[in-house]
């Protein structure tokens, strides 16, 4: 059974390896990740389920399900915006993060076909958030040291209460 890893798990801090094979195993992983993500969030990266591969899925409200394999951001806008982000790997913690408002991304779909997308708004934000996971970066890493430390303390406090 697939579970979402949480803050403190080492795989969340690793740079993921490229996907080399577009096979049934990959299709099954994407299907399982999609089932796990739906109802919980709008994006999920393979490292969050313990698979250190360059793959993420997302489905912001009003958008189709996107599958990004070996994604690369090729352009970002100079214009930036802030938005309150959360993460399935740091449940219950939310904070404003500043990111470029628009991005252009090259990736492969689940069949190994290349595509490019020009994204803005919530889709651009989710792409950047999930792509960060593939590089071992969490949204709290974009915060000031003081805000990051506060978020970690808050998460640990909530996590401790759940364990009791």
Briefly, what is this?
This protein has 164 residues and is an alpha+beta fold. It contains three helices and seven strands, in the order H-E-E-E-E-E-E-E-H-H.
Topology summary:
Elements: H1 24-37, E1 43-45, E2 55-58, E3 66-76, E4 80-85, E5 95-100, E6 102-108, E7 114-120, H2 121-134, H3 145-163
Antiparallel strand pairs: 1-2, 2-3, 3-6, 4-5, 6-7
Characterize the structure shown.
The chain is an alpha+beta fold and 164 residues long. The protein contains 3 helices and 7 strands; from the N terminus they run H-E-E-E-E-E-E-E-H-H. The protein has a 5-stranded antiparallel beta sheet. It has a two-stranded antiparallel ribbon with strand order 4-5. A hairpin with a 5-residue loop joins strand 6 and strand 7 (114-120). The two termini are 24 Å apart.
Task: Give the overall shape, derived from the CA principal axes.
Answer: globular
Q: In CATH, what is the homologous superfamily? A: Peptide deformylase
Mean pLDDT: 95
Counting DSSP H or I runs of 4 or more residues, the number of helices is: 3
Largest sheet, in brief, is: 5 strands, antiparallel
Strand order of the largest sheet: 1-2-3-6-7
């Amino acid at each position: 059974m697939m579970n979402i890893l949480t803050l403190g798990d080492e795989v969340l801090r690793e740079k993921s390896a490229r996907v080399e094979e577009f096979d049934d195993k990959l299709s099954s992983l994407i299907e399982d990740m999609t089932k796990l993500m739906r109802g919980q969030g709008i994006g999920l990266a393979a490292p969050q389920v313990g698979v250190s591969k360059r793959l993420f899925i997302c489905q912001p409200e009003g958008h189709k399900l996107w599958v990004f394999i070996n994604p690369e951001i090729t352009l970002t806008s100079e214009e930036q915006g802030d938005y309150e982000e959360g993460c399935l790997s740091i449940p219950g913690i939310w904070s404003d993060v500043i990111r470029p408002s628009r991005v252009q991304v090259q990736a492969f779909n689940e069949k190994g076909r290349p595509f490019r997308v020009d994204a803005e708004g919530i889709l651009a934000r989710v792409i950047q958030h999930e792509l960060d996971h593939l590089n071992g970066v969490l949204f709290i890493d974009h915060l000031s040291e003081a805000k990051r430390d506060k978020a970690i303390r808050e998460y640990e406090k909530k996590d401790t209460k759940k364990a009791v």
